[in-house]
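Database export, one record per block. Field names are fixed; values are copied verbatim from the stored entry.
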Amino acid sequence: MTKQHTLLAIDTSTATMAGAILQQGKVIAEVQTEAERNHSLHIMTNIESMLKEASMSVRDITAFVTGIGPGSYTGVRIAVTAAKTLAWSTGKPVIGVSSLEALAYGALLQVEEQGQERLQHDKAVIIPLMDARRGQVYTAAFQADSAGKWDRLHNDHIVLMNDWCQLLQEQLLHYAQEDVTELWFVGDAQLHEEAIERLTIIANQQSLTVRSLSTAMYGEAIAQLGAAKLLEMTEAELTVVHDLVPNYAQLTEAEVKQNAKEREEGRA
């Protein structure tokens, strides 16, 4: 696969349906709509709108990129199913990227594009938050630097926000020693301000600045992460469409009930 590709990227893991068409590294069409309970009604219309904006047909797409979660259980499935269907029908590859990573990377892109709060120091740890209710969040952590380097620090997972902040607190000295100067909470940060404020007080003692940024999913981030992954995939990996599955980061309610039933029957 050459670098001269055109990617169509979509994500429906959050209240925002985000998408973009990326051609040779440049965004030529994008969409960002808020319709948490209606993504299934609008996703194909939004895809068609992007193709029209780019003056393309679906056959012009080199590969399809989708956020695979974690996030809304139903929402994640919508984008994954749409991307796999388009890939299968056109004979093109489908690439799955972490929705949490896209949320984190998208926040960095948006801040830099605004030109107001760009990354001013050498290193920052970016922590995406998706509210999972009952005090829980879907989250991970990534490190960015002013030279453009991007690394994953923590895997995607679901955790109580208070427990997550406690773990991050234990990492503060290590971050300071690694020349990290900022911690960014992005995504659903406004829903967890109390926990973030408590961590901020302790982080400031380590000369770390904590920033809380309420941001939405960003189509370009999904596309850019897909483009980077595309270059690393083998031809064999690119031909397998049906193996792509969502990452829910937790059991569904039905699975929880089934596991409980099996445990109960095992004790009987």
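Remark 1: Strands lie at 6-11, 16-23, 26-34, 63-67, 94-97, 123-133, 136-145, 150-160, 180-187, 209-214.
Remark 2: The chain has a mean pLDDT of 89.
End of record.
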